[in-house]
From TrEMBL:
Name of the molecule in the record: CD166 antigen
Localization annotation: Cell membrane; Cell projection, Axon; Cell projection, Dendrite
Membrane topology according to the record: Single-pass type I membrane protein
Organism listed in the record: Oceanodroma tethys
InterPro entries in UniProt: CD80_C2-set (IPR013162), Ig-like_dom (IPR007110), Ig-like_dom_sf (IPR036179), Ig-like_fold (IPR013783), Ig_sub (IPR003599), Ig_V-set (IPR013106), Surface_Rcpt/Adhesion_Mol (IPR051116)
Domain of life the protein comes from: Eukaryota
A biological-process GO annotation: adaptive immune response
Principal cellular location given in the protein's record: membrane
GO cellular component term, pick one: dendrite
Length: 560
């Protein structure tokens, strides 16, 4: 490279400077020398080499002591390049007749350290011009330049918004520069989380280069412009007994730490942190909730519904009634939404609600009225009615001769609750072939059966007794030699009820026919009587005495 038409050597600070003597060695060379020129132009000789004696001498120049090396081809090397080595050096070749000189310019370059952003602000406030920090790059030669960046884009100076000052200081002992660029910045809300960095531009032996600092993020403070209230809940709905956690937040930075919460039923706002908790809430907590900053500005609101479910069963608990009595049952629901209601009897879901106009034994059992709010998780209520139907013992006895003609079966059909105890007694000769056998007690009914072989007519007595009453019924049974089929076979209760219904139907038909015949007879009698009266009036009008007499005789006979 040439500088001002002169040969130039570019060297890196701290490296070795190598300067070849660009003169051709002439014939008759006596010696060669190197010198440099002072700023005022006076020479300073630093190295000498004889062409005949081959010896090298270095002048006593303190700056170059132990740093110089002159080769046989008169190339000069300077170790540990310094900024002060940036001079004009001259190679001299001397003969008896002539002195030849060739100058060389030395340029020294030093890469600066990686720039750092120092004295960084803890935070910046909007609408205020504040010092963000200083970008420092040390030990550069020649001096470099500093540029600031925000999110990768160059920050240009803007009056009262972006102010950049660059200061360059040189170290007199080394000649190296330190560049310090300060940045004053007025941030906006959008600068939150912005990345700031700086880049140093410098010159090296091969041209212009850059080094970038690590980016920094400065916290930007700005006032709250909006307040938001939230309901923190694991479920989408709230029911009685739950806890309600309200959270109020502002969009400022730093966010507000205290708020005023306005609760339904409270005249004044409640001062609290950003979270307000209500425990075991009731239905009266339903309403509008608000929060604001402590200066009562920027308010937000939300509506909370506390769901509830009430169930009233009448009657409930254990209820004892007598058979045949009426029992009104009601299950009343009060809820925040439409509720689903269903009945369960003895662990079986019922199709309809229970209604008792005349209680029967089969109506006894455990009844549950249960209701739920399907949209509200965990909201379920139930109440229980334990219905006991009591009745005095009722007895019906039947008898039949068994197919073997050797014995007769006597059955005592018993109804009642609590379950009656049954005893048998026999009046007359005969023996009880086996002990009494009882059927299963279902819906207040069961049967007790004995088998007997009477030698003569006997009377059997069935005694049924519970806590309410003692009932006794007797049945005459003929001797075994006399077959008896006056009673039907033992059958279950359902069949008995069907037979009874059929009997009632037959009786109804017969009674209806009898009533129809009676009405027909009365109509006929009235008709006959009217006919007789009409004939009497006709006879009188005609004045026929004989015919009247004959008619009277005939009428008398007819009436007789």
């Amino acid at each position: 490279p040439l500088a001002l038409g002169l040969y130039t050597v570019n060297a890196v600070y701290g490296d070795t400077i190598t300067m070849p003597c660009r003169l051709e060695v002439p014939d008759g060379l006596m010696f060669g020398k190197w010198k440099y020129e002072m700023p005022n132009g006076s020479p300073v000789f630093i190295a000498f080499r004889s062409s005949t004696k081959k010896n090298v001498q270095y002048d006593d120049v303190p700056d170059y002591k132990d740093r110089l090396s002159l080769s046989e081809n008169y190339t000069l090397s300077i170790k540990n390049a310094r900024i002060s080595d940036e001079k004009r050096f001259v190679c001299m070749l001397v003969t008896e007749d002539d002195v030849s000189e060739e100058p060389t310019i030395v340029k020294v370059f030093k890469q600066p350290s990686q720039p750092e952003i120092l004295h960084q602000a803890d935070f910046l406030e909007t609408e205020k011009l504040q010092m963000l920090g200083e970008c420092v790059a040390r030990d550069s030669y020649p001096e470099g330049n500093v540029t600031w960046y925000k999110n990768g884009r160059v920050l240009q100076p803007v009056e009262e918004a972006v102010v950049i000052n660059l200061q360059k200081i040189v170290d007199k002992s080394t000649g190296l520069f330190t560049m310090t660029s300060s940045l004053q910045y007025m941030p906006t809300k959008e600068d939150a989380n912005a990345k700031f960095s700086c880049i140093v531009t410098y010159y090296g032996p091969s041209g212009q280069k850059t080094i970038q600092s690590e980016p920094v993020v400065v916290d930007v403070h700005y006032p709250t412009e909006k307040v938001t209230i939230q309901v923190l809940s694991q479920s989408s709905t709230i029911k009685e007994g739950d806890n309600i956690t309200l959270k109020c937040s502002g969009n400022g930075n730093p966010p507000p730490q205290e708020f005023l919460f306005y609760i339904p039923g409270e005249a004044e706002g409640i001062r609290s942190s950003d979270v307000y908790i209500m425990t075991d809430v009731r239905r009266n907590a339903t309403g509008e909730y608000k929060c604001s900053l402590t200066d009562k500005s920027m308010m937000d609101s939300t509506t909370i519904t506390v769901h509830y479910l009430d169930l009233q069963l009448t009657p409930s608990g254990e209820v004892t009634k007598q058979i045949g009595e009426a029992l009104p049952v009601s299950c009343t629901i009060s809820s925040s939404r439409n509720a689903t209601v269903f009945w369960i009897k003895d662990n079986t879901r019922m199709q309809t609600s229970p209604s008792f106009s005349s209680l029967q034994y089969q109506d006894a059992g455990n009844y549950i009225c249960e209701t739920t709010l399907q949209e509200v998780e965990g909201l379920k209520k139930r109440k229980t009615l334990k219905l006991i139907v009591e009745g005095k013992p009722q007895i019906r006895m039947t008898k039949k001769t068994n197919t073997n003609k050797m014995s007769k079966t006597i059955v005592c059909h018993v109804e009642g609750f609590p379950k009656p105890a049954v005893q048998w007694t026999v009046t007359g000769s005969g023996s009880i072939i086996n002990k009494a056998k009882e059927t299963k007690y279902v819906n207040g009914k069961f049967s007790s059966k004995i088998v007997i072989a009477p030698e003569e007519n006997v009377t059997l007595t069935c005694i049924a007794e519970n806590q309410l009453e003692r009932t006794v019924t007797s049945l005459n049974v003929s001797a075994i030699s006399i077959p008896e089929y006056d009673e039907p076979e033992d059958r279950n209760d359902d069949n008995s009820e069907k037979v009874n219904d059929q009997a009632k139907l037959i009786v109804g038909i017969v009674v209806g026919l009898l009533l129809a015949a009676l009405v027909a007879g009365v109509v006929y009698w009235l008709y006959v009587k009217k006919s007789k009266t009409a004939s009497k009036h006709v006879d009188k009008d005609l004045g026929n005495i004989e015919e009247n007499k004959k008619l009277e005789e005939n009428n008398h006979k007819s009436e007789t």
